[in-house]
Fold:
Amino acid sequence: MKSNVKTDKPSIFYRISQLGYREKGTALIFVLPFIIGFIIFNVIPMVYSVVISLMDFNTFKPLSMIKFIGIDNYTRLFNDPIALNAFVKSFIYTLFYVPGLIILSFVMATLLNKTFALRGLTRTLILMPYVANVVAVSIVWSILLDPFGGPINQIIEKLGGTPPMWLSGVKTALPTIAGINVWQSLAFQTIVFLAALQGVNKELYEAADMDGASRFRRLWSITLPAISPTTFFLVITSIIGSFQNYASVRMLTNGGPGTSSRVISLNIYEEAFTLNHYSYASAQAMILFAIVLVITIIQWKGQKRWVHY
Structure:
């Protein structure tokens, strides 16, 4: 006989679904602090910056007196030679900084990927500039590159050369700052490249050796395609970071001599916190955000031609 008694025991599918809900709830609890922090420190300030860029909040005044002026702050930017020059200087800085950082970090990672004495110690020491305080780094380099009696220029003079002005020269200030920042940022990119190089399939190199491929051929046909996703990531982050180079410029040259190293991040800071032009500074920040966004989108679209996953 068949029993008509029904059991209240939940089905296996019900228990699995309930377990899934509990796991999602637990995951949400762990992620929630980041989401809250991201909203408070990123989303809200960005929305606020967009709003005040459309206002006339360029002097201290009661909030009741702040008026909506549309895109006047944006049109003012295109008639401001100092701001336009700051954007140009930022692009020039990027042209020095990004290729130098990517190339040198790849070369350094390639060297550290080889077996040699004290390799572990060398990998540790390369991190020191990266974790050093930017103010301390700027002070040390200012002393080293002092055009009048600095150690580096003294060595150049003893070797019979003509020392450059470095941070005090109109044409050399911006490349010098880029070089210092490349030196300080080298460790992170090197470590990432090193991890990518160690992940390349060794069988590909063995097959290339059997075919008699040269070192350059192995580099071009195996190594670079294999680490292209890593290269793409580092190029994007380096470009974004190159437009956020306020601290080092402020400490090394403060935009000088003249406006030869006045990049847009420094210009935005001074417009906002020195001249109290909050709306105008926000408009410049929004233009900078749009430029970085466009560059990133172009890179993302162009990755299909050279990035191999």
